[in-house]
Amino acid sequence: MNLQRRKFLRQAQKGGVGLSVLGSTASWMALLNGPAHAGNQAEEQLSDSVRTALSQAVLQSGPPVPVLVTHQDKQDFNAWLTATSHRLRQWMPHPDDRQEFLHTLWYEARRAGLSLSLVLGLIEVESAFRKYAISSAGARGYMQVMPFWTRSIGDGNESVLFHTQTQLRFGCVILRHMMTRENGNLFLALGRYNGSRGQAPYPQAVLAAQKKWLQSVD
């Protein structure tokens, strides 16, 4: 990553560059976002009870601090963090970026009851770990969340999908919802997440990527 791009991303993350600038300058968008893997997920009609439950699930509840109760929990987390950070370097070269991302991913995946390797595999396929990725269908961020979800279960502010914790929170909650809809069938849930339910290529790609990230802490 060149110095100019690094500086721009740092300013954006710290609030020095507004998201309106990101959205208004085509050249910067081309720089920040390569092709992203997202299907044509259709907006679902949600019952009031499901909408309320999902809305509550995506509410922010403080910083993503992993809950590590026992000494073994701490050892497992540190071992996972070290090994996963090493593997992630090819996509995310800066150690501070990796630490923020992995702390948040651990917290949000655990909160949603998802395996860490599954979420990592999905992100690798969806966005290749690019925070500002935008697909041709308009899906955004690491987990390629469609903006309509911010209207369905959020406050309608699409720009939050470029915030690390919010993006991972939405993605994990939505994937958990898809798994519930499919009665735990991961193949169908992944297809529904991508908008290609019943088709093999996307689930197979995510499951293949997941194998590279598997560790005992899953």
Explain the overall architecture:
The chain has 2 domains: 1-32, no CATH class; 35-213, Lysozyme (Orthogonal Bundle). Helix content is 60%, strand content 0%. It has 11 helices and no strands. Helix 7 crosses helix 11, helix 9 crosses helix 10 (186-194) and helix 10 (186-194) packs across helix 11. The model is unreliable at 1-34 (pLDDT under 50).
Concise structural overview:
By secondary structure, this protein is mainly α. It is built from 11 helices and no strands.
Specify the CATH architecture of the largest domain: Orthogonal Bundle
Count the domains. 2
CATH class of the largest domain: Mainly Alpha
Strand content: under 5%
Low-confidence stretches: 1-34
How much helix, percentage-wise, in residues?
A: 55-70%
Give the SSE layout.
Blueprint: H1 3-14, H2 19-24, H3 26-32, H4 48-58, H5 71-88, H6 95-112, H7 116-127, H8 148-153, H9 164-181, H10 186-194, H11 201-213
Looking at this protein, list some descriptive labels.
218 residues; Lysozyme; globular
